[in-house]
Design brief:
Largest sheet of chain B: none
Distance between the termini of chain A: 18 Å
Oligomer: heterodimer
Mean pLDDT of chain B: 90
Low-confidence stretches of chain B: none
Strand content of chain B: under 5%
Radius of gyration of chain B: 20 Å
Strand order of the largest sheet of chain A: 5-6-7-3-8-9
Shape of chain A: elongated
Number of domains of chain B: 1
Number of strands of chain A: 13
CATH class of the largest domain in chain A: Alpha Beta
Shape of chain B: globular
Number of helices of chain B: 12
Largest interface: A-B, 30 and 23 residues
Order of helices and strands of chain A: EEEHEEHHHEHEHEEHEHEEHEH
Number of strands of chain B: 0
Low-confidence stretches of chain A: 298-309
Number of helices of chain A: 10
Structural class of chain A: alpha/beta
Largest sheet of chain A: 6 strands, mixed
Helix content of chain B: over 70%
Chain lengths: 309, 264
């Protein structure tokens, strides 16, 4: 089956600024792709090119095999919630959703009403005066209500309270179980970690990592927390080992050692001291993310790195 | 397309009522002033001291007659100016204004064509202009006799059509500039600059012998130079207005098809 989104050597320049640089990106059917990076990394610019809202300076984009700028019908298969949300202030929420339904066509009104209820949208309210979170809910209902083949979500939980965030993630799970593919752009890593099968990390418009979520997490530096029976040895004892990253001493008897690679040499060195406890929590995506960012910062951004899947 | 048109009309509803109300009040005020002005007999005396070129430039020829009075107070300047402003402001708000505000992005992410969005919005503005022009034209045509203004209905219809055509031209200009990707304030500045320069060319250049031929390049000239209140419908002028408007609309639609939509 051909990819739903296929970007090849995608580049976007704004004058002298290159927002996206020779980006290769593919989204396979049925996949939830986490698209992460800090503000200004080029996530929204990429998304706008994928949806045909912005012309690439170079490279190509195919959406369901078609040029999204020329083939408006492919957008009928896409539900989109933009990062910067601007709704028509003159309408009520109900009128907004009704208008989107008419323009989109094929919306199941019962499912729309179910979404309204589950996300706690007050449909009779005027858009003017809505909080950021309530506007976000309207956009999410609009994106989800047609049960699209592809959801493109740019910072979808911005402004949502935790209860609604959970409900949204739950709805997303139901839709992906039915085969909906998702491009999930966010800088909230814990959230991406919950939903994404695969993650692409972007920095300065360049892909710096691309792989299954678990693989990326495992590829990150592992933190070992050693609590010693007596005073902790000097951090340099461990920092000198090959594979060691930063070593911190948050308390007199404790060391936190960032470690990459097989842990044998570290464990051997630790065994020379009397330990009270040694823990190694499961690495979080955030650790991986920071690690990729640090590494990418040391290399030229013109060379995208793609890990094997 | 119908939903887009419905949204375009809905977005203008409040403003259209306000503009319509203001234009009706202005029209009725001018009509109501005629009986007392004509009875005083002072209108021609008042203008007697002005040079004929200036009187012509200000559209005040034959000011003591019903047609001259109506032309000088409504059809030579105020109505064309206000109608064109209405078209430009509404067209700008629905195109460049919506894009600047970020609303166009969400709309264009739906399965609608850019050309369809722009065309439906143009139609919505033209419908509002037509509705307001019909009300004002009917007010003058049917209300004139009530205020002792003896007018030719065909002349009133032709003059109203002329100012509608002038408004259409400037509306199309605003659409073209928005289609090219200019920001809303630039679209407004450009459209109003053309409106003002067109008026100056139409009214002032005929007073300069070496440049009087340039007046024919003004849209105001196409709409009003034939004195439609007196002489009726001007096919050539209307054709110029419609033809140039179509070219401007085509430019706007071609430009919006492939360009990047601005973000907030």
């Amino acid at each position: 089956m051909s990819p739903i989104i296929q970007c090849a050597k995608l580049t976007k320049r704004f004058g002298s600024l290159t927002a996206v640089r020779s980006l290769d990106l593919e989204l396979e059917p049925g996949t939830v792709l986490g698209f992460i990076g800090p503000n200004g990394a080029g996530k929204s610019t990429t998304i706008r090119m994928v949806l045909g809202l912005s012309n690439p300076s170079a490279g190509t984009v195919r959406l369901f095999g078609a040029d999204p700028l020329r083939e408006r019908r492919v957008r009928a298969k896409v539900g989109y919630s933009p990062g910067e949300l601007r709704l028509d202030e003159r309408l009520t929420i109900a009128a907004t959703l009704k208008s989107w339904s008419r323009l989109r066509g094929g919306v199941d009104e019962r499912f729309r009403d179910e979404l309204i209820e589950r996300l706690g949208v007050q449909a009779d309210r005027q858009v003017r005066g809505l909080s950021t979170g309530n506007r976000r809910k309207v956009a999410l209902v609009g994106a989800l209500m047609s049960r699209p083949d592809l959801l493109v979500l740019d910072e979808p939980t911005n402004g949502l309270d935790p209860l609604v965030q959970n409900e949204f993630i739950s709805i997303l799970g139901e839709l992906t179980a039915l085969g909906t593919s998702v491009l999930f752009s966010s800088h909230i890593l814990s959230e991406v970690e919950r939903v994404a099968d695969r993650i692409v990390v972007i920095r300065g418009g360049v892909v710096v990592a691309d792989g299954p979520t678990d693989q990326l997490r495992r590829g990150a530096a592992q933190e070992f927390r050693a609590v010693f029976a007596g005073a902790a040895p000097h951090p340099s004892v461990f920092a000198e080992l090959a594979g060691a990253g930063p070593v911190d001493s948050p308390r007199p008897r404790e060391l936190r050692i960032q470690w990459s690679g097989p842990p044998g040499p570290l464990l051997a060195r630790l065994s020379e001291y009397e330990l009270e406890s040694l823990t190694a929590p499961e690495p979080e995506l955030e650790t991986a993310f920071m690690s990729y960012y640090r590494n990418a910062g040391a290399t030229t951004p013109a060379a995208p790195r793609r890990s094997a899947e | 397309m119908l939903e887009l048109l419905r949204r375009g009309l809905g977005a203008q509803r409040r403003s259209a009522f306000i503009w319509g109300g203001v234009l009706v009040i202005l029209t009725v005020s001018v009509l109501a002033a005629w009986p007392s002005m004509s009875e005083s007999g002072s209108l021609d005396t008042l203008l007697g001291g002005l040079p004929p070129e200036l009187i012509s430039a200000l559209g005040l020829e034959d000011y003591g007659s019903p047609i001259g009075f109506l032309n000088g107070n409504l059809y030579a300047l105020f109505l064309p100016l206000l109608f064109a402003a209405l078209g430009v402001l509404h067209m700008n708000a629905l195109t460049a204004g919506d894009e600047d505000a970020g609303r166009l992005e969400l709309l264009l992410a739906l399965p609608v064509s850019r050309v369809g969005v722009y065309l439906s919005r143009l139609i919505a503005v033209v419908l509002v202009l037509a509705a307001v022009a019909t009300v004002v034209g009917a007010m003058v045509g049917f209300g004139g006799p009530a205020f002792e203004l003896d007018l030719d209905a065909a002349g009133v219809a032709a003059a109203t059509l002329g100012i509608f055509g002038l408004a259409l031209f400037h509306t199309a200009l605003a659409l073209a500039l928005a289609g090219l990707g200019l920001r809303a304030n630039v679209v407004l500045a450009g459209s109003f600059a053309v409106l003002a320069l067109g008026y100056l060319a139409h009214s002032m250049l005929p007073m300069i012998d070496s440049l009087d031929w340039l007046a024919a390049a003004s849209p105001w000239h196409w709409a009003l130079a034939s004195q439609p209140l007196t002489n009726g419908f001007d096919a050539a002028g209307s054709a110029m207005l419609i033809g140039t408007s179509m070219v401007l609309v085509a430019v706007g639609l071609l430009a919006i098809r492939r360009r990047t939509i601005r973000t907030v």
